[in-house]
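Exercise: predict the fold of this chain.
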Amino acid sequence: MSTFDLIVIGAGIVGAACAERATAEGLDVAIVEPGIVGGGATAAAMGHLVAMDDDPAEFALSRYSLALWEAFTDLPSAEFSRCGTLWVASNDDEFSRIPAKLARLTEAGVEAELVEAVRLYELEPMLAPGLRGGLRVPREAVVYPPAVARHLVDLALERGATFHAQHALRMQPGCVALQDGSVLRGPVLVATGCALPRLLPSLPIRARKGHLVITERYPPMVRHQLLELGYADSAHGADAASVAFNVQPRPTGQILIGSSREYDAVDTDVSMDMVRRMLQRSFRFLPGLRDLDALRIWTGFRPVSVDGLPYLGRVPGMADTWVAAGHEGLGVTTSLGSAHLLIDQLLARPTAIDAAPYDPARVLS
C-alpha cells in the first residue's frame, strides 16, 4: 500500500494537466491510466484553442486557460499553430450578431476585429462566394492534443510522479483499489471524462459522439481556423444529432474537418450518413474541399455535464475526493485553466477566477 498527496485517475489532457500542475506544486502524485495517455476524447479532439464567449463562466475559464497556453508555443510536439480564428457570417442576420460578440471579446481583453465581406475574401480567398463577413480573433491557435497530454505526463514523471497502467476498480474516500490488487492511499482526483459515472455515479455525464475527417497533405488552402457563427448554437444545442462548419489548417499541410455531435450513439463506428452531413455543411462554406482526398475518418465521445460546464472541485459527501470532468468540446482549450483552478482549491488557495460556477455541488443540491 502506497500513500500519495494526490491520485489522479485518468490521463487525458485534463487529468494530465492536473498531474503536471500538482507535481509543479511539489505534490507526490500517482497517475492511474489503463490506456494510452491522451488516447480517449483527447485523441478525438480538434485541438482548437478558442475563447467561447456564449456563457460567462465558459468564457472566463477559456480566457484564463488561453493565457496559460502561451507556455507551449515553442513545444515542437504540440504543433502549436497561431492561425487565428475566423468566424464566418453567411447572411445579414448572422453578421448583425458580430458587434455584440466583438464587444464581449474586446471588453475582456481578447484581440478581435469585425471583417467586412471584401476583407473576408482577402483573408480567405477559397471561401464560397456570397458570404456576408466575419469576426477575426488573430491570436487564437490550434494544437495536437495527444502530444500535449503526453508532454504533461512526462513533466509529472520527471518530477517524481508514478504511473500505474491499470484500471481503478474501486474507490473509497482517500483510497483507490487497482486491478492487480494493490491499493493507493491519498486524496483522489477523478478525471475520466465519459467514464466518470463508473467511479462517481452521483455526477451525471452524457457522452456525445463526434466525427472528424483529415485530408492528405496539400498546398495551403485556408489560413485560419474557420467556424460558422452558428457553431455555438450547434455545440450547445439539445438536438440528438447536429453538424456545424469547423475547418482547421494543420501545420502538416493537412486540413482537419469537423464537426458533428450525436447524443445516444453508443458505438465508435463511423456513420457515413453523419459524415456526409458534416462534409456537405463544410462544402457550403469551402467548396474546394470537394477536390481533396480524405486520409482518415474517426470518432470520439465528448463528456457533457448536465449544464455544459465542467465539474471542477471537491465532490460533496466524499472526503478527499475531487473531480475534473465534463468539458464537452472545450476540454483542450480549458485543460490548463481547469488544472490550475482544481489544484488551487486542493491546496486551499484563492483561485484566479471564481470557481463557484464549476462546483460539482451545483448538481447535487
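Check your answer against the key: Residues 3 and 185 are 4 Å apart (CA to CA).
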